Amino acid sequence: MTAAITYLGTATPELTDSQIKEIFANLDVAFNDVMLNAFFHGIYTGVVAVTLWAVASRNNFQDYRRPHFPVFTILLLYIVATVGFCCVWAGAISTFISDGESFWTAYSVSPKTSMLLTAGIVATLSTVLADATSIWRCWIVWGRSWGVVLVPIACTTLGIASRGIVTYYTTFGSHPSPQALYLENIVSWSLLYSSLILATLLWCTILIIYRILRVGRVAGRVRVYQRVIEMLVESASLYSVVLVVLLVMEARNELTGTFVEDLAIAMRGIMPTILVGRVAAGHARPDDSWNESTVRSSLRFGNHSSSHNDTEMSVGSGWDTPSAVRPDLEEGLGDITAVRVKGASPTASEHDYYAHVVGTSSSVDYSVV
Q: Does the keyword field hold NAD (predicted)?
C-alpha cells in the first residue's frame, strides 16, 4: 500500500522516480501527439483546398459528365477527419487544462464516453471512405471488373466489423488503469483491423501498379517519371508503407507508434484526395484507355490514319501550294503542247486543262473543310 502525498493541492500516490519519469514521458507523447495531429491536419486542409480548386477550374463541358462520387467522397472524408481532429483537440483541452492541476490528474483522467464513441465512429467512416476510393480506382483501372475487387471488399467489410468491436470495448468496456498502455483484448482486434485494412491496400496497390506497367508497356509512349508518379498516386503505395510501419509498432506496443498513427490518419485522407484531384483535373488516363484492346486498336488506327493522311497530303499538296501548282501546270502544258504537236489530242486546250485543275483544287479544299 502506497501512501498518498500532496502535490499542488491534489492527492498523489507515492511513486518512484522511474514511475514519475514514465508518467511525464507519456504526457509528453500525448501533448506532442496533439501538435503533430494539428500539423498533419493543416497539410491535409491545404491538399483539399488545392484539389477543389483544380476541380472547380475545369469548366469544360466534358467535366459535367464526370461522376461526382469521387469529389463527394473526398469532401465527406475531410469533414469526418475534421470531426476526429476536433475530438482529439477537445481531449487535449480536458487533459492539460481542465484536469491539469497536476501531472497525476492529467495522467489519470479518463475520456468521456461520448468522445470515445465519436472517435470510433469517425475512424470507421474514414476507413470506409478511404478504402472505397482505393477499391473504386482499382475497379476503374481493371476495366470495371468486379472479380478483381471482391477480395478488398471482403477485407474492408471484416475490417469495419473489427473496428466496431474495438470501438465497443474502448467505449463501453472496462477502462485500463493509468499504468496500462493497451488492453489485451483491444490489441488483438486492433491488429486484426490494421491487418485487414493493410490487406485491402496491398491488394489494390499491387494490382494497380501491375496494370499501369502492363498498359504503359502496350502504349509505349509514357515517360519513366510520369509512370512513377502515376504509380505512386494511383496505387496509394505510400499509405500502404505507413500502414506496414504502424502494424509493426502496434505489434510491439511501442509508445511512439502514436506518431506513426497520426501520419497514417493524415495519409488516409491525403492520398484519396490527391488521386481524385488528379482524375478530376484531367491529368489521369481516361477511363476507357485502361483496356488493352482499346489501346492496341487505337495504336493501329493511329498508324493507319497517319499513313492515310500522309498519302492524301502527298497527293493533294500540289494543289494547295501555289509554288507546287506551277510545276504541275508547266508539266501539263508541256504535255498538251507535245500532244498537240503530234496531233493526238486536238480537242484539249490550255484553258480547259487549267479549268480542270482549278476545279479539282476547289473540290479538295471544300472536302477538307
A: no
SS3 42: helix
Using alpha carbons, list the distances in angstroms from residue 284 to 4, 146, 242: 65, 21, 24
pLDDT at 207 over 70: yes
Give the integer Cα–Cα distance in Å for 323 and 98. 90
Give Cβ neighbours of residue 292 (< 8 Å, ≥ 6 apart): 214, 215, 218
The rounded distance, in Å, linking the Cα atoms of 224 and 347 is 66
Rounded distance, CA 165 to CA 193, Å? Answer: 10
For 242-272, give the DSSP string.
Answer: HHHHHHHHHHHT-TTHHHHHHHHHHHHHHHH
Burial of 251 (0-12, 13-18, 19+ CB in 10 A): middle
Checking if the pLDDT of 193 tops 80, the result is yes
3-state secondary structure (DSSP) of residue 183? coil
The SS3 of residue 1 is coil
Distance of CA 247 to the CA centre of its chain: 22
Closest of 234, 280, 285, 269 to residue 47, by C-alpha = 269
Give the pTM. 0.68
**Structure confidence by residue, pLDDT tens digits, 286-343:** 556 556 554 444 434 344 444 444 444 444 444 344 444 344 434 444 444 444 444 4
Q: For the chain, give the percent of residues with pLDDT over 90.
A: 25
Stated length of the chain = 369
Domain ranges of the chain: 18-289, 297-368
Could you read off the pLDDT of 99-123 as tens digits, one per residue? 777 888 888 888 888 888 999 999 9
- The amino acid at residue 106 is A
pLDDT in tens, 235-276: 677 888 898 998 888 888 788 888 999 999 999 999 888 888
The label of the residue with cell 484526395 reads: 273
Cα angle at 365 between 364 and 369, to 5 degrees? 120
Q: Is 139 exposed, middle or buried (0-12, 13-18, 19+ CB in 10 A)?
A: middle
- Determine which helix (DSSP H) or strand (DSSP E) holds 173, and give its type and residue range: none
Q: What would you measure as the largest C-alpha separation in the chain, in angstroms? A: 135
